[in-house]
From TrEMBL:
The species this protein was found in: Ficus carica (Common fig)
GO cellular component: nucleus
Stored SMART domains: ENDO3c (SM00478)
Stated name of the protein: DNA-(apurinic or apyrimidinic site) lyase
Keyword Glycoprotein applies: no
Length: 374
C-alpha cells in the first residue's frame, strides 16, 4: 500500500473540499446552508426486509453516501440530493426519503431515479428466501442480520471512478479520494455538516491533470483516472454512453470491455459490473471472498494461492450455488464478514476457519485476462 505524504493528507482531510486549481475552472461561488430544516419526508413503501440502510450504504458498494442521523443516510442520485431514513416504529413503509435539492416540477422524476438507483424492481425478500432454502448457513446469517442488503444500480461513470480509487486501499482513504473527485461537480447542499455535489461529468474530469491528482494524494491511481478519462472520451458516441451500453451485454463481454480501461483488472471490473451494469451474477473476488469460498464452497482449495484461473472457479462456484443473482448473495456474505456485522453474529460464525496458525499468502488477481479484447 502506498502511503500519503503529510501535506497531501492534510489537504484531503479538510471537511469542505474545493475544486483543484489552477487548471480546472472553479465552480460558481455558492452560499452553503444546512438543507435539513424544511425536510419533507415521503414513504418509499419499502420495508426493512427490502432495504436496510446500514447493510447497504456503508459496506463498500458506494463511497458517496454519509450517515446523517441515527437511522438516516444522505447522498446524491444524478442531480438530486436525497436523504433516506428508517422510521422508528419499523412499519410496513419503513423507509422514507426527502429531497433536499431538486426543482419542484422534477420531484416525480427524482423518485423514479431514486427507485432505479435502489434497484427496487427486484424483490430482495423473495431472493433471500430462495438463497436460504438452498443454503442453511445463509439462512442463519439472514436470521441474525435481518434482510435488506441491496445491490445498488449506480451511474456507471461514478461507479468506475470510485473503484479506480479503491485499488489497494481502505474505505476511509477511498472515501476521502472520492470526496475530492465529487467536489469538482456542482454543489447541491449541506446536510448535517457534510457537503454534497453532483458527480462531475467526463468533460469536467478531463480538466484535471495527473499531477493535480497526485498532489491531492491519489498516488499511482492518478494515472489510472486521467488515462481512463481520456480513453472514454475517445469512444464513439461518448464514454458515458459507452459505459451505459455495457448493460446490454453478457457478463464476459462486460468484463473484457472494462478491462481495456487503465487500472481496471478483473476484480474492479466485476465490482463495476455488479454495482452499476445489471450483471447480477458478477462476483468480485478479493481476499475476503476467497476466504468465504474456500470455507463454504470450495474447501478443497483452502491454503491454495489465488490465481486468475481460481478467481474464475470461485465465481463459477457462487453462480452454481446461488444462480442468476449470485452477486447479491456474495454481497450479503461479504457484509457478514465485516467487523461491524460479525459482532452481531453468534461466536461459532467467527470461529470457523479462523485459526491463526494457518498462514496464507494470497495474491489478488488484478491482471487482465489473456485474449480479452474489445
Amino acid at each position: 500500500m502506498h502511503s500519503l505524504k503529510p501535506t497531501s493528507l492534510a489537504i484531503m482531510m479538510k471537511k469542505k473540499l474545493k475544486p483543484i486549481t489552477p487548471s480546472p475552472p472553479s465552480t460558481p461561488q455558492i452560499i452553503r446552508s444546512n438543507t435539513t430544516a424544511a425536510a419533507k419526508w415521503v414513504p418509499l413503501n419499502l420495508a426493512k426486509s427490502e432495504l436496510s440502510l446500514p447493510l447497504t450504504f456503508p459496506t463498500g458498494q458506494t463511497f458517496r453516501w454519509r450517515q446523517t442521523g441515527p437511522l438516516q443516510y444522505t447522498g446524491v442520485v444524478g442531480p438530486h440530493l436525497v436523504s433516506l431514513r428508517h422510521s422508528s416504529d419499523g412499519g410496513a413503509g419503513d423507509v422514507s426519503y426527502c429531497l433536499h435539492r431538486t426543482p419542484s416540477e422534477a420531484e416525480a422524476e427524482a423518485e423514479l431515479a431514486l427507485r432505479d438507483f435502489l434497484n427496487v424492481g427486484i424483490s430482495l425478500a423473495q431472493m433471500w428466501d430462495v438463497f436460504s432454502a438452498s443454503d442453511p448457513r445463509f439462512a442463519e446469517l439472514a436470521r441474525h442480520l435481518g434482510g435488506g442488503a441491496r445491490v445498488l444500480r449506480q451511474d456507471p461513470l461514478e461507479c468506475l471512478v470510485q473503484f479506480l480509487c479503491s485499488s489497494n486501499n481502505n474505505i476511509s482513504r477511498i472515501t476521502t479520494m472520492v470526496d475530492f473527485v465529487s467536489s469538482l461537480g456542482e454543489y447541491l447542499g449541506t446536510v448535517e455538516g457534510f457537503d454534497f455535489h453532483e458527480f462531475p461529468s467526463l468533460e469536467r474530469l478531463s480538466m484535471v491533470s495527473e499531477q493535480e491528482f497526485r498532489e491531492a494524494g491519489f498516488g499511482y491511481r492518478a494515472k489510472y483516472i486521467t488515462s481512463t478519462v481520456k480513453k472514454l472520451q475517445s469512444k464513439d458516441g461518448g464514454g458515458e454512453e459507452w459505459l451505459r451500453s455495457l448493460r446490454e451485454l453478457e457478463l464476459e463481454e462486460v468484463i473484457c470491455a472494462l478491462s481495456t480501461l487503465p487500472g481496471v483488472g478483473p476484480k474492479v471490473a466485476a465490482c463495476i459490473a455488479l454495482f452499476s451494469l445489471d450483471q447480477h451474477h458478477a462476483i468480485p473476488v478479493d481476499t475476503h471472498v476467497w476466504q468465504i469460498a474456500t470455507r463454504d464452497l470450495l474447501p478443497e482449495l483452502a491454503g491454495a494461492r489465488l490465481t486468475p484461473k481460481l478467481c474464475s472457479r470461485v465465481a463459477e462456484a457462487f453462480v452454481n450455488k446461488y444462480g442468476k443473482y449470485a452477486g447479491w448473495a456474495q454481497t450479503m456474505l461479504f457484509i457478514a464478514e465485516l467487523p461491524s456485522q460479525r459482532a452481531m453474529l453468534p461466536s461459532h460464525f467467527s470461529n470457523v476457519n479462523r485459526k491463526k496458525s494457518v498462514k496464507r499468502k494470497i495474491v489478488e488477481a488484478d491482471t487482465i485476462a489473456e485474449n480479452c479484447s474489445w
